[in-house]
């Protein structure tokens, strides 16, 4: 496979995309319904989970198990990783077809997608951003991540491979654990690194066309040990969006490293729906 080392500009763009591995790091039994989850009235909302770059829907496995144990309907579609507009179009129809209230939850690059979907999808009651970008109209992921120091993404940790749609971005295998899954079991991280999915480099220069509506409640998890997206960037964007913020001592791979923290924030969003 022919590698092409990323330029600094492309590397900054990669940082915008960052998603961690789908490492099944937490194998514990799903927790029972919390008080917050039990407080929700009416039918439980469908929890829609959107993954980010370099991963697939299996990155949510530990979160899905817990939610399903609590009888939440869950939908975790595959994201093509072909760019924001293309990815939104790919999943929009299936999400629209879900009846009743929906909570959109995103990890990393997926935050760009739910920000767009929020103004186009009916019955969205809340947005949950898990170590994710929270953009405003006209911004790009690369721009957002370059505003703050802290990301270790760069030409020494990433590479691009030519493809039919343009260069696809990968994280170097030897850098994967450090960037995304620091502290998770090494074998799990190695499996995720081997199965990572590329994302088009152009996705990170693509401008977001709409800001998530102000009347939709927002929640954000800031991963304080994130080396992919700067925790400072996550915190700034969450504060700007007036999101309720939960800080978790976690690497970028929050759904794998601390799935219960994700479920707890989803409980908050579900408890106050409507």
Automatic annotation (TrEMBL):
One Pfam short name: Abhydrolase_6
UniProt keyword list: Signal
Signal peptide: 1-22
Domain AB hydrolase-1 stretches: 47-265
Gene3D superfamilies linked: alpha/beta hydrolase
One GO MF term: catalytic activity
PANTHER family xrefs: AB HYDROLASE-1 DOMAIN-CONTAINING PROTEIN-RELATED, ESTERASE_LIPASE_THIOESTERASE DOMAIN-CONTAINING PROTEIN
Name under which the protein is recorded: Pimeloyl-ACP methyl ester carboxylesterase
Organism for this UniProt entry: Pseudonocardia hierapolitana
């Amino acid at each position: 496979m022919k590698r092409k080392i990323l330029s600094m500009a492309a590397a900054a763009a990669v940082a915008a995309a960052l998603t961690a591995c789908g490492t099944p790091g937490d194998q514990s039994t799903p927790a029972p319904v919390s008080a917050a989850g039990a407080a929700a009235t009416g039918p439980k909302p469908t929890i829609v989970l959107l993954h980010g770059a370099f991963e697939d829907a299996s990155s949510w496995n530990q979160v899905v198990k817990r939610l399903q144990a609590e009888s939440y309907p869950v939908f975790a579609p595959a994201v093509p990783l072909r760019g924001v507009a293309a990815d939104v179009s790919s999943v929009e129809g299936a999400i629209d077809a879900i009846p009743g209230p929906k909570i959109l939850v995103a990890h990393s690059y997926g935050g760009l997608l739910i920000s767009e979907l929020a103004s186009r999808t009916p019955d969205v009651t809340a947005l949950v951003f898990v170590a994710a970008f929270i953009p405003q109209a006209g911004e790009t992921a690369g721009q957002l991540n370059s505003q703050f120091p802290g990301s270790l993404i760069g030409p020494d940790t990433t590479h691009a491979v030519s493809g039919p749609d343009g260069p696809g971005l990968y994280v170097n295998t030897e850098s994967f654990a450090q960037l995304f899954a620091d502290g998770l079991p090494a074998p799990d991280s190695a499996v995720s690194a081997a199965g990572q999915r590329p994302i088009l480099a152009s996705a990170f220069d693509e401008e977001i066309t709409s800001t998530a509506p102000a009347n939709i409640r927002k929640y954000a998890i800031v991963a304080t040990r994130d080396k992919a997206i700067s925790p400072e960037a996550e915190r700034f964007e969450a504060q700007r969006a007036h999101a309720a913020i939960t800080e978790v001592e976690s690497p970028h791979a929050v759904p794998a490293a601390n799935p219960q923290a994700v479920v707890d924030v989803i409980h908050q969003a579900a408890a106050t729906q409507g």
